[in-house]
Write a structure and sequence with these properties.
Radius of gyration: 22 Å
Strand content: 15-25%
Number of helices: 17
Helix content: 40-55%
Order of helices and strands: HEHHEHEHHHHHEEHEEHHHHHEEEHEHE
Strand order of the largest sheet: 1-11-12-8-7-2-3-6
Low-confidence stretches: none
Mean pLDDT: 94
Length: about 425
């Protein structure tokens, strides 16, 4: 394995800039405007786009920026801050709502309507738990808070203005985790040791002030279009214009399930109503976790020597889940197909930056930065550089298995040119 990794590194221009680590990995305590609304796991800083524009000397004038995995809209906010029109795509409807509210341009009358929104008077709803087809609903919120959530949602539904409805709904979603008995942890949600018993009505008012302050403070009028689409169908998405440059971070092939992590927000934001809808969302996603469509059989050639050897090594190991090798295989097939489609949607000489994280299974490093670079090169992209930005954390058990190859467990930025 060591020889294949070293051979791949020798092909490319590998540089190290650990100062970028704090930009590619957005830690929990973030007080930046827009970013402070909601904690979004695995997001990066809006300043990463500032760095990218300077580093690659990108001309902002008449540019169109694309983030095809836009998440909570960090890069889109960064594009607006720089006066650049942008397009964001995400399969997760929650992500699309967050990105849309952050980047939309509002009328003063819409802001005023939100400021004057009246919290409904509390009244009992006797059968409130029956409203949700979620097995742990009684454990997530106190009955009183769950009633308050529904009273606010009912008030929002009566508003005619769509922009106002979206701001208020997102505001409610932003406070759900802090007012619940659960919190995000690992690859899902877990019960809090110390329940805070925060009041939904009180937190709604406090959060809305912050959101409206950030929206009113926005100085740019750059436009942003959000598509709630499956990136596996990227070829068929009509973007209407050619893309000037792109910066994005696809899901890492690390078994992290974004839909499980945001189950509270998806469910109580009424994006999904039952477990079947949750399952269908997972099956449509990039195959980066074991809840995706990992049983599909796709016979597709990937022109990467490192990928072929990695798969050979993974298939020899006994994993905690037998589907891990196929998951890794399907992930790189998904990414190959996406990069192939991207070629037809960007302008000539466009610069593309991909933020990726490497992983390992049973001591076998899955060097996504090197494998994707080999795949991109085979598709006709020029790999300008791979910038290693930080070393990923790994368990002591994994460290024992992987040994000196631990240095390949890292986050990097791949810089491509077409």
């Amino acid at each position: 394995m060591k020889n294949f990794l070293e051979n791949s590194e020798n092909i490319f221009n590998i540089n190290f800039d650990f100062k970028l680590g704090k930009l590619v990995h957005n830690f929990k305590n973030n007080d930046d405007p827009f970013q402070r609304w909601i904690y979004y796991q695995e997001s990066f800083s809006t300043e990463l786009l500032d760095w990218f524009l300077k580093y690659q000397k990108i001309d902002k004038k008449n540019s169109l920026f694309l983030d095809p995995f836009c998440g909570s809209g960090s890069s889109l906010v960064g594009a607006q801050k720089n006066g650049i029109d942008s397009i964001g795509i995400d399969l997760n409807p929650l992500s699309c709502l967050i990105s849309e509210v952050k980047t939309n341009n509002y009328k003063s009358s819409e802001i005023k309507y939100c400021k004057n929104f009246e919290i409904p008077k509390f009244k009992e709803i006797s059968n409130i738990y029956s409203y949700y087809n979620l097995s742990i609903v009684k454990n997530i919120f106190s009955k009183k808070n769950l009633i308050k959530i529904n009273l606010i949602k009912n008030s929002i539904k009566k508003i005619n203005n769509e922009n106002v409805r979206k701001i208020l709904l997102l505001n409610l979603i932003c406070i759900l985790e802090k007012c619940s008995n659960y919190k995000k942890g690992g690859n899902g949600i877990k019960r809090r040791k110390n329940i805070k018993n925060l009041d939904i009505f009180v937190e709604f008012k406090k959060s809305l002030k912050i959101i409206l302050f950030d929206i009113e403070s926005k100085k740019t009028k750059s436009k942003c279009v959000i598509y709630n689409e499956n990136i596996k169908n990227f070829k068929s998405i009509n973007l209407k214009k050619k893309i000037s440059f792109s910066l994005f971070s696809p899901p890492y092939v690390n078994c992290f399930d974004y839909f499980e992590v945001y189950k509270i927000e998806l469910w109580f934001g009424n994006f999904i109503n039952d477990y079947n809808q949750l399952r269908l969302l997972r099956k449509k996603a990039i195959t980066s976790n074991l809840n995706a469509d990992i049983k599909q059989k796709i016979d597709q050639i990937i022109k990467s020597k490192l990928f072929i050897h990695t798969m050979r090594c993974l298939n020899k190991k006994k994993h905690w889940n037998k589907n891990i090798p196929n998951m890794v295989n399907l992930y790189f097939i998904d990414m190959l197909n996406f990069l192939e489609s991207l070629k037809n949607k960007v302008k000539k000489n466009s610069i593309i930056a991909i933020v990726v994280g490497n992983s390992s299974y049973q001591g076998v490093p899955v060097a996504t930065d090197l494998i994707l670079s080999e795949i991109a090169q085979s598709l006709g992209y020029k790999v300008k550089e791979i910038i290693v930005t930080r070393n990923n954390e790994t368990s002591s058990q994994q460290y024992k298995k992987i040994g000196k190859l631990i240095k390949y467990i890292r986050e990097s930025i791949i810089i491509l040119e077409l």
